[in-house]
Amino acid sequence: MSASAAAILLLALVLPATAQGAAELKAGIARVEITPSTSMPMYGYAKRKCGPATGTHDPLFAKVLVLEAGGSRMALVTADLGSLVSETLRREVASKLDIHVLLLSASHTHSAPSFLPFGSAPASGEEAQSYLAEIEQKIFGAIDEASRTMFPARLGVGAGALQLGYNRLLIREDGRARAVFDNLERIPYGPVDPEVVLLRVEDAEGRAKALLVHYAAHPVVLGPTSCQYSADYPGVVQSVVERELEGTQVMFVQGGAGDINPLFQGRSGRQEDDFAVMEKMGQLLAAEVLRANKTVKLLAPVLDSIKVRSEVLTFGDRWDKDGTIEVGITTILLGREVAIATVPGEPLHKLQRMWKEQADVPHPLFYGYTLSAGGTWPGYIPDLRSAAYGGYGGDASTRIEVGAGEKIMLRHLTFLYDLLGMWKDKPGRP
Questions:
Q1: pTM for the full predicted model
Q2: For labelling, which of 166, 200, 234, 390 has a CA lying 20 to 30 Å from the CA of 335?
Q3: pLDDT tier at 120 (50, 70, 90 boundaries)?
Q4: 382, 396, 316, 377: which is closest to 352 by C-alpha?
Q5: Higher-scoring residue by pLDDT: 22, 293
């Protein structure tokens, strides 16, 4: 760890298994609509060519999965929002529901309302504060509902691959990178991570109750002329798959999409035409999800508690030498086959690749855009190479110190091997 990360708050949440030994896995699910009832400013584009939202194309949802094993519980919230930061939710879910691990994962759609400022500053303005309070209440209620309707569960994992994104950081003639925001020719600039990973939650009868779709691509099919609330392509994926898999709650988890834009982009300025492009991208990914769903294999039963390490790391500000940025991360181990690494803000895809390549478990899952352990929303978190070559998300529009991305992932890996019991108190055999 660097000197700037020396002051860290360590929260260890490893709870023992039940006295009987086996810790039966239980799950609960719920959802709630969070579409604003008013026309709020739209998220994500500094040069958006409309004022407040003019309507709703498709509703925004928050979906909840609660898992319990061996007396330990965690809650995952996926939300059709640009970002989601709420210390109120973390505090109340812990104190009132006894759930001390809460993952708030935003899809990062740019067609959601803009109500949270950068970082951890509170929502400003009466309308923004009112909306934040409303969704906090709704999400708390959904977590409460899920925790009161638990059922015996098994986990399964499947995977597919489909390149629906391109790397927008392109090296130019001067040797520096600059972003290619619009790519109407659909040139598959690389590198990217095209993998689609599914985590399926089944009940005791083998019925799929929840399907988590992990993919990495910015939800910016809809561009700066779009003026209606929309979950963008992740919303299409979820609705299509839910129609095909009746009784299954589909939840989209955004990965390391900081430098990955969608190959399909609605930039005509005609809303219906642009929504058709969004529908096309969502349909393509949904088809791959449905195909990959047929490959899902059940994992070994979870015979231990949910193991967790959370920490708040302190980094320097890249441009303000006196500034600091606090980043909360959480590493989770489910059984010995599934490990989750959470990173708030917008991590670039190579950090996701680093986790997948070095986490020595069968199924390493990467949760970008996910607040989990306090700290701030740090914005873009580049890998070292991207930070060196620059461009949007590499050096422009970033604040966190150089090397922070790799340090975050090394901390995740250190935690993972601790949770796996790999760190011994004395050297092993020569």
A1: 0.94
A2: 234
A3: low
A4: 382
A5: 293
